[in-house]
Amino acid sequence: MRTHRCGELRSSHVGMSVRLCGWVARRREHGEHLAFIDLRDHSGVVQCVVDGSVDVRSEYVIAVSGVVRDRPEGTANPRLATGAVEVTDCSVEVLSAAEPPPFLVDDRVEVDESVRLRYRFIDLRRPRMQANLRLRARVNAAIRAAMERHGFCEVETPLLWAPTPEGAREFAVPSRLHHGSFYVLPQSPQLAKQLLMVGGLDRYYQIARCLRDEDQRADRQYEFTQLDLEASFVGQDDIMGVVSDAVIAAARAVAPDRPAMIERMTWEQARERFGTDKPDLRFGMEIVDLTAVFEQTAVRAFAAPAVKAIRVPGGAETGRARLDALVAHAKRLGASGLAWFRVLPAASAETAEAEEAAKPSEGPGATGAGPELAADAGAARLDSPLERFLSAQERHGILSRTGSRPGDLVLVVADDQHVACSVLGALRTELGGLGVAEGPLRFAWVVDFPMFEGVDEAGNPVAAHHPFTMPHPEDLEKLEEDPLGVRALAYDLVLNGWELGSGSVRIHKADVQRRVFAALGISEEAAERRFGFLLRAFRFGAPPHAGFAVGLDRLVAILAGEEAIREVIAFPKTQSGADPLTGAPAELPPSTLAELGIRVVANRSGG
RNA sequence: GGACCUGUGGUGCAGCUCGGAGUGCACGCCGGCCUGUCAAGCCGGAGGUCGCGGGUUCAAAUCCCGUCAGGUCCGCCA
Questions:
Q1: pLDDT band at residue A347 using 50, 70 and 90 as cut-offs
Q2: Cβ-contact A124, A187 below 8 angstroms
Q3: Which domains does chain A have, with CATH numbers?
Q4: Which of A92, A119, A181, A313 has the most CB within a 10 Å radius?
């Protein structure tokens, strides 16, 4: 039906007779003797020249037969990949007429997302969407190749699974043959892949669809895709090595121009330096500890267990209204307050020399915090409502520990350790954050997550990961007395401030598992009821195993430079879980409900 | 469950503070002209439940209340 793709024609094709198929992207008629048709297929656009007028409209599907030639002198179009050539002497066959599209098939026009989704089949013709989906396919291919290289075996696991009440709300599927009983769609293949390990698969992976009935976000859909993997007779470092290989291979395959690197830090360090367990390492503004500086402070606002700060480079221009808004924002985030210090030059030009001369006597003597203070801090002064309450030592401490220079802004939160860091971490991202397409690809492994996060209403610790996560061997003896101080062999992968995935070493010994269930307040009966099939499997020879899951939608979105994963999913749903294209979710006919043994008792949408 | 933003011809926006005739801009669409354009150009034209419902008012796109939809975020996502 066709000899070439539109976007591939170059000067090397000149002289060839070609037949192309595609959509009419654009049509320019010059009277009855000359017309141009920009013909588009997935590969790109090429200009076709018709001698005479043609009866085609935008988005008609046509076949064009003609001869490739160099464009006449001065008419080449450098903005087009095929812009050096054109197809001439064209005869046009209409394969399919088209109504005028609801919006232009063009990356440059912005269209409301619900309209795009209702006409997703048109939206997908846009180069941006074509590029995103093809990029995604190449990521999948690179990942599969990496996993095969590492000896992993791709296995598919069921979508119709058993209810295993866990963290996320599950989607239920009624059983036609067993009225009143339900399958659920898996939140992840977590339990299945552990069974595969007991089954001796040794190394499993899958590009798996996961389903969670939780509220959606820019980076969350009901259905999403994970690179899911599990391996036997391995430890944390082995898993991290394989996953690192896979994601770096994916990054190199589709974004070779963006430097990609992976580093590793503990959960504790991440919280301390970035105020979050998903740090964005593309920029500095790390959290600085000023607690020691204010140990003896007379400033009541700074009398707190922890005093933390971030330096906003160039932030001294921030106006009062904006600063007030930041303070209010910090309070909304849970801080008792936010102090700001604009860092200004010490003095005007004529007094600079005097400042220079005064420095040595003032600096080290006054602060006792090291000789580097004078050099760093001497040329700056602080502008803040709190400034006059500060001691000289505190002034210097703020400047030197944050490494501030004139023109910067320093934000300080005094609170307990956790609040101070997380509030500053949030402010750091807001004030310094880069766009998703900007900068390098800074992967980070965050290891040594706590085993439990807080306690529930019954006073039982809440598992931070899932209940089969192995406690850190060094903390095993604390499991009973100090559960909240126990670290887990659990690790997250973070990319540019997005959580990409998490994994853990699993418990394969019955006694450890019993102790963890006990710590979680899960009785033996409850454990048997919820995970009985897995526990039974473990009694028949469970290898030590560990695994991981990478959120592919997020990875692809970042690699594609998209803020929302909807842009890298062919048919996503809206935030309320609807699909404007298909009308899902939709009611079922009464006969179907009857067959399923389902009676609808209430209709919240008032139908 | 909650907060905020948005909703105006097919598309994107302005108009809304300070109420006065559906007023405007760009694109698209339809017709005409045009032999080298390329988001072609020029001329003409059609196209509207101002998301929906209620209220205030002599008068509502505009003010108020409610509601629906889309988005962003909090909660939630072991």
A1: low
A2: no
A3: 6-96 (2.40.50.140), 129-263+550-591 (3.30.930.10), 283-432 (3.30.1360.30)
A4: A92
